[in-house]
Amino acid sequence: MDNLIGILSAIVSVVGAIVAGVMTSWSSRKASAFDAKLERERHEETKAEQAEKVLGRYREPLLLAANSLQSRLFNAVRDEYLPVYLRCGDKEQEDYARQFTVYTLAEYLCWVEIIRRELRFLDLGGEEQNRVFTKRLLDVTNTLSSQKYEQPHYRLFRGQQRAIGELMMQPGADGHHDCITYPEFTRRLDDDPRFRSWFERLLREVDDIADQSEAGNARVIDTQRSLIDLIDFLDPDKTRLGADHREKYVEATPSPAPPRTSPAGSSHSVTVSAQPAAG
Fold first, then answer.
1. What is the pTM assigned to this prediction?
2. Which listed residue, of 43, 44, 180, 272, carries a Cα 20 to 30 Å from 120's Cα?
């Protein structure tokens, strides 16, 4: 009997040791998993905070650059600026009309490239926000590079967009990047043939914008509209730019032809071929 009790005691001791070991191992694994989860959460939080800091740093210059470009494109197609100054006979005004139009595009591409370099993963702290921001940038990129438009002027493939953005970059404060100013841009156009070669076609194609109809400027119009969507994302509360600075271009609607009056005095609608005005 004593032997049986001894054996049972030994078995209980062994089982107890095994259970204790299993529980200790399980607790250890659970604690390790919990620690790993906390570390991942801290890492994700830090990454999101860093991303938000980067976007916060460049939100304002990207917003202003997008607005300068959309405003320039809007007025260029609406025939309120380019037709007046592009061929006015004053070389200084003509050069400015071409060069600043190209500069607004290059400045925007520069800030996009800066953000792309400093924010490798567009993690803004929320999947939806990340998706929307990425889409807004890609809409502009894809419109500029698309081959679906009948007219090729102002088409820039992705590699060209990035190259122009890089050419416009200069060292900024605290090791970050900045965009060259308009005076520096014009100086390089005059003094650096290799720099100017990247912009020669775009400078010529400013004339194409002025000469084309709205249909011929479809790429320019769609780019302006995509920029407005980006501006709405960057400044949803309209605190930096008011509502007056984010109007999407709307094509002019032709006025309907007036009804023709019959000899008997009754009027009825007829189809009339459009004819150029005399003189």
1. 0.72
2. 180
Residue 210: closest CA among 151, 145, 257? 151
Instruction: Determine contact, residues 58/114, Cβ cutoff 8 Å.
Output: yes
Tens-level pLDDT at each residue, the chain (279 residues): 666 566 656 666 655 666 566 566 666 666 666 666 656 655 555 555 665 666 667 789 999 999 999 999 999 998 778 888 998 899 999 999 999 999 999 999 999 999 888 876 545 555 677 778 889 999 999 999 999 999 999 999 999 999 999 999 999 877 788 999 999 999 999 999 999 999 999 999 999 999 999 999 999 999 999 999 999 999 998 888 877 778 899 987 655 555 554 444 444 333 333 333 333
Contact 107/68 with Cβ under 8 angstroms? yes
Q: Which two tokens mark 21?
A: 């070991």
